[in-house]
Amino acid sequence: MSNEELVVRIKAGVDTADNMLQLWEQTKNFIRCMARRYRGYAELEDLEQEGYIALYDAVDGYSKEAGCKFFSYASFWINQRMKRYIESCCRTVRIPDHEQQKMHQYRKIENAFQIYRGRKPTRWEICYNLDLDEKQASDLESAINMSRIGSLDSILQESDNGDTIGDMIPSSVDVEGDVIDRVDQEELCIILGDMVASLPDDQKTVMRCLYGREQYTRAATGRQLCMCTQEIRRAERKALYSLRRHDRVDSLRAFLPEAAEAQAYRHNSSKEFNTTWTSSTERIAMRL
């Protein structure tokens, strides 16, 4: 039985399931041939399944009185169905059909300019040939760039082990740098701890409260030590004065961040220095 006769029987409701199965058997090679055109974009079995679904649309719209073969009529529906499947499910970025058509026209113009003029068209030439304004041309170029985005799960062609693009992207975690920073921090804490330990008891306690792990305020430190704020300030100034003249103060320069070095050129005024007894470099270092 011909395809056209099967379609007539299916539309008449005669043994619909059996006739539809027979139509599928007679057209599956044709559908497979069409699916092979797009096998670089999707799995062949998925494309064949879409082609089978498209047969229902072709059967509903086919008219034997039109005088065309069912294959000719069905090829349009099968082709459309496969294209839409690829655009909807197989692209990393979903791009609408109307944008796809404009992109196709854009590439045709671009190829024509390369062949006949040896260069790419300018934005104005694109606007003139595609009847677009400046914003539409810009949006079209953005859509073209989006269509080139690939999946990180795509397998590299040169790889024999199934490596993907994502496997080749370096990690944002700087493991080596983190280890070095941690070691520097531990060494800095040891040096500072020894320097603070050499201070008198009252200054040592005040510095540990103000700049230790808890980092109490001067008021909270005063409550902890039963001292007024002025006494806390006085002990802090004396401690900083002694630490600046400590034998190991030069060894701290290696731990000074580049940011502190750059900001240290913003000098204190004489009034601020006489009030806090800290230089600009010391102030920045303590802040960091």
Secondary structural class: mainly alpha
**Largest beta-sheet characterization:** none
Helix-strand string: HHHHHHHHHHHHHHH
Determine the mean pLDDT: 75
Beta strands, count? 0
Poorly predicted ranges (pLDDT <50, ≥5 residues)?
Answer: 259-266
In whole angstroms, the N-to-C terminal distance is 86 Å
**Mass-distribution shape:** elongated
- β-strand amount: under 5%
Radius of gyration, Cα only, in angstroms? 38 Å
Number of helical segments? 15
- Helix percent band: 55-70%
Short description:
The chain contains 15 helices and no strands.
Name some characteristics of this structure.
single chain, 288 residues, mainly alpha, 15 helices, elongated
Q: How does this model look, in words?
A:
The protein is mainly alpha-helical. About 70% of the residues lie in helices and about 0% in strands. The chain is built from 15 helices and no strands. Helix 2 crosses helix 3 and helix 10 packs across helix 12. The radius of gyration is 38 Å and the shape is elongated. It starts with a helix and ends with a helix. About 5% of the residues have low confidence.
